[in-house]
Specification:
- The structure holds two protein chains of two kinds.
- By secondary structure, chain A is α/β, with parallel strands linked by helices.
- Chain A has one domain: Aconitase, domain 4 (Alpha-Beta Barrel), CATH 3.20.19.10.
- Chain A is 33% helix and 16% strand.
- In chain A, the strands form two sheets. Chain A has a four-stranded antiparallel sheet, covered by helices on one side. In chain A, strands 2-3-4-5 form a four-stranded parallel sheet.
- In chain A, helix 3 packs across helix 4.
- The two termini of chain A are 31 Å apart.
- Chain B is of the alpha/beta class.
- Chain B has three domains: 158 residues, Aconitase, domain 3; 91 residues, Aconitase, Domain 2 (3-Layer(aba) Sandwich); 179 residues, Aconitase, domain 3.
- A five-stranded parallel sheet of chain B has the order 5-4-3-6-7. A four-stranded parallel sheet of chain B has the order 11-10-9-12. In chain B, strands 16-15-17-18 form a four-stranded parallel sheet, with helices on one face.
- In chain B, strand 4, helix 3 and strand 5 form a beta-alpha-beta unit.
- In chain B, helix 2 crosses helix 5 and helix 13 runs parallel beside helix 16.
- The N and C termini of chain B lie far apart (51 Å).
- The chains are: A alpha/beta, B alpha/beta.
- Chains A and B meet through helix 6, helix 7 and helix 8 of A and helix 2, helix 5 and helix 10 of B.
- Bound molecules: iron/sulfur cluster.
- The site of iron/sulfur cluster (SF4) has 13 residues of chain B, from helix 4 and helix 12.
Amino acid sequence: MAYDKFIVLKSSAVPMPIENVDTDQIIPARFLKATERKGFGDNLFRDWRYNPDNTPKKDFVLNNDTYSGKILVGGKNFGSGSSREHAAWAVYDYGFRCVISSFFADIFRNNCLNVGVLPVQVSAGFLDSIYTEIEKDPNTQIEVNLPEEKVTILSTGESEKFDINGYKKENMLNGFDDIDYLSSMKSEIEQFAATLPF
Amino acid sequence: MSKTLFDKVWDSHVVRSLEDGPDVLFIDRHLVHEVTSPVAFQGIKQRNATVLFPARTFATADHNTPTINQHLPVEDPLSANQLKALEENANSYGISHWGLGHEKNGIVHVVGPEYGITQPGATIVCGDSHTSTHGAFGAIAFGIGTSEVEMVLATQCIMQPKAKKMRINIKGELSFGVTPKDVALYIISRLTTSGATGYFVEYAGEVFEKMSMEGRMTVCNLSIEMGARGGMIAPDEKTFEYIKGREFTPKGAAWDKAMEYWKTLKTDDDAVFDKEFNFDAADIEPMITYGTNPGMGIGISKNIPNAADISGGASTYQKSLGYMDFHEGEEMIGKPVDYVFIGSCTNGRIEDFRAFASIVKGRKKADHVTAWLVPGSHKVESAIKEEGILQILEDAGFELREPGCSACLAMNDDKVPAGKYAVSTSNRNFEGRQGPGSRTLLASPYSAAAAAVTGKVTDPRDFLKNNN
Ligand code: SF4
């Protein structure tokens, strides 16, 4: 499924300083039976966000109007657990385009890159700075610059570089998923096929 | 540079290699079934894409098809819907479709080889993990997820990093009564269910050289149960003999040309593997599982191991035995059996039915045992009839069902009830795999037959001796 291009994102951020947020929390298993990708944003962090009677839990950050934005700032080891792609869908469908953390679980990071969410891994110190600035001013703007592979806290000017694999970066910049990428090399594939013995 | 069999086939299919990214791998044959394909086809539609090479794609219905009264409309609305979707999708994209009732219908991994779709040196994928079966012909074959099914439909390629390489060598001669299924269960019990994670396995050595093609399929089929991406065996005269003349194999001059290439498909003498295991055939006896993963297998004459003797996972070990209602140190022989299932892409081919029949011949099914005998395809079903096996089975009180996956994953009505024990020739003994609460003992067709006539876990060698 195609997603919007990611070049430079400037936004306020939602702080979630919790370590080891696992995919079962991001999207509980009971929401995996869907045969279509629909409604996953509503169920992002479902059990942290809502009481069993579906009333919102007041103290959860996504229910707090003070914080908003397209960037989620999570604690260390974000996205551990199962390989379900649905977790990344939920993050994207809710409206986040970027997750910042000091460490990501491997499969979750990959799934994010496939669905259009940019995982930005920063140092623990830089992560703390972000939290501090947001605490001071919930409207703190953060700039995530993909071409330069750089994240900046605009109010202080503090910035840090981040890593991304070249192939995935190209895809994000173009709003491509793997199928789009492969489709773009269709004639190469057809020529290749013609040389095969089968 | 020296190459392994896996290197040779993989490297010759790389369209493009991405720097610090995956390889773009061309897929020769794509097998499709009703359960993992609807969402993929929906994706193709939404993208306004098309199927790039429909002639390289083959669809068959197997996972949720009934195994009786296939001529009647399918009762379960969900299954009926998926079957209809497969037919419509195949028709609208020009894909050959062997649906329910079609003479070529059967389990996807059984019909592929039967019609020569499976060939040495090919890359083959399917949205089912036991696609590894096709590796028996020297093909690279592995299961994929639904988003990858969409990828292959749209572009005939897949993006994958190359797996690490493992070789498993077994030397010597298999003992009397030991089948390829036992060999596979033995290997998994030694490596555990995650022992080959991240690897592609090549099976080598005398045991596999002497094994029939169907036996090799059984072994490669189970590669996935030790975590491997897939398993393969170098093609040889037996392989060529098996595929020659089948519908989709090359003919005439094209055959000669293919043969030239196929003969190069073996691991170079000095090629290096990331990991190697060596086993001795003499150590393998008929195997049976006692727990809830395929790695929990032992020789049928042995007792259930003590938790202390198992490396790691003591708490899950107890949970597993609790589910089975078995205890440490107990004997497997003599345990009561309620159901027997012979079938699946692991052991649903003609040799498996011959083996089963050789034991039940002249005997009677135990009264309290419910037996499901499910051929892997219509072709297998016909052979059972033509070879006179059906008569033997019926004389012994069994009936033959119609082809499909059946109780392998219990998506249709063939479900083992909660708490009941089934000796099954399929591939997974996970909790609830054969029906909610079902208890599965994986074993060979010989052991399934022995259990079917005695109604309890029985060493099949007792019967085989009597037959001599
Ligand atoms: S028989 Fe079982 S393992 Fe084989 S294709 Fe069917 S469901 Fe999958």
